[in-house]
Amino acid sequence: MNHRIIVLYYSRHGSTRALARQIARGVNAVSGCEALLRTVPDIPPSAEPPSDPYLTYDELKDCDGLAMGSPVWFGNMAAPLKHFWDATTPLWISGALIDKPACVFTSSSSLHGGQESTLQSMQLPLLHHGMLIVGIPYSEPALHTTRSGGTPYGASHHAAVSGQLSAEEKTLAQRLGQRLAALSIRLDPATANT
């Protein structure tokens, strides 16, 4: 049975979606893990179809791990993601997400646009759900050399540099996905002793 890792994102111009795809690549590189790319509806709802399916609460409840990404929005997560989490009270009451690993990622149009505060604010609902936060350790060489995105709090992208993810941003996002997936296996009581 594959461990199902949700890669949830909201993206307005595509940068956060590009990071989500790199994290999914990292997840899928771990044997026994499968990334499910999901998004949330716009507020107000958009007439355009989403690039990935909308996340359901049942999928979230049944996941083995979660990566969540948002563009920087005044130093915080975007309203559509906040709206999604505000309706997760039944999962919080049941403890459905307790002890599942989770990580966060973001994108901004300016280098000092609030990446770290956005990453930290996205961790708050995850902590309230009892999830275990996964970051990027400094043992990752790209964290020392990046000149655009990437933080110990999670993967990030500075969109104004070229509009494309840098090599370091891709590497760090993939490594974060791999780390999240590997931890989901290690934390699973069914596979912990194998």
Strand element count? 6
Give the class-level CATH name.
Answer: Alpha Beta
Rg result: 15 Å
At CATH level 3, the topology is: Rossmann fold
Major sheet, described briefly?
Answer: 6 strands, parallel
Strand proportion, as a percent range, falls in 15-25%
- As a percent range, the share of helical residues equals 25-40%
* Unreliable runs: none
Second rung of CATH, namely the architecture: 3-Layer(aba) Sandwich
Q: In one word, what is the shape?
A: globular
Mean pLDDT: 93
What class would the helix/strand composition place it in? alpha/beta
Helix and strand sequence: EHEHEHHEHEHEH
Organism: Vibrio spartinae
EC number: 1.6.5.2
Pfam families: FMN_red
Keywords: Flavoprotein, FMN, Oxidoreductase
Topology readout:
Elements: E1 3-9, H1 15-28, E2 33-39, H2 57-62, E3 65-71, H3 79-86, H4 89-94, E4 101-108, H5 115-128, E5 132-133, H6 141-145, E6 155-158, H7 167-187
Parallel strand pairs: 1-2, 1-3, 3-4, 4-5, 4-6
